[in-house]
Amino acid sequence: MKSKKIKQFFLFFLLIINIVIFYAVFCNNKNKPLKVVFLDVGQGDSIFIESPVGNQLLIDGGPNKKVLDSIGKVMPFYDRSIDIVLATHPDQDHIGGIPEIFKNYSVEYFLYTGATSSTNIFKELVNKVSQNKIKEEIVLAGTIIDLGGGAVLEVLYPSGISWKDANDSSIVAKLYYGDSSFILTGDAPKEVGDYLANIGKNDLTSDVLKIAHHGSADSLSESFISKVSPEFSIISAGLDNKYGHPHKEVVDFLNDTESVFLSTYELGNIFFISDGIGTTLLNH
Prior knowledge:
Blueprint: H1 2-29, E1 34-38, E2 47-50, E3 56-59, H2 66-72, E4 81-86, H3 92-95, H4 98-104, E5 106-112, H5 120-131, E6 135-138, E7 144-148, E8 151-157, E9 172-177, E10 180-184, H6 190-199, E11 208-210, H7 222-228, E12 232-235, H8 248-255, E13 260-263, H9 264-267, E14 270-274, E15 279-281
Parallel strand pairs: 3-4, 4-5, 5-6, 10-11, 11-12, 12-13
Antiparallel strand pairs: 1-2, 1-14, 2-3, 7-8, 8-9, 9-10, 14-15
């Protein structure tokens, strides 16, 4: 009798496991909306993107392992892989958490501009890329990253590898999905924003703009923001950080526009989805 109960329990356990596996496979194969999440990583940047077919891109990793908690809230527990990790530039507040990602997730590609740093965290990142046999590629303006299902990331800047400092090398990219789009700016300074606004090469209009450099005054390009004309403007920064980000002039400028200003230090993770027609904010 006892043996029969054990057998029944074992069969029930197998059934539950099969249901979980079926659900995971079904959800991954099902056509989904584009997901873009501005992760709350404190004083830093990290953006999680999942295409309609489930391919995942992480842009930056914040300053430390806090990124693991934030990304754990948007990825299912059984998903332990990320297709692409992209570093906009090698500052601590953007790459500090990437080695932790490499320790905890299987990553296929690591993308960056070729800009390097002598810091210990950059050396650790390079070592993890090598140890984990992650494919490494340099991306510059004109690079197109096809995320599948119609979602595409285009690198708009930089076009070369000669910069004054790390922020000057920061990637600016535009994510497209149907009629929806997002402009992602890393820590690009004002001069980069002005340059992109004035060359007239790209259509900068987007639903969502990630404000550069955590809302610092030296990154405020009014011409760039006006060209983007975003419905939503996002600032990623830590609460009461020592840099005073975001600076008052940036907040005042955004409040004078029609854009809805949102911040990670107030909302935590900021979730958007898109069906290719419109972009929807999921935070309430």
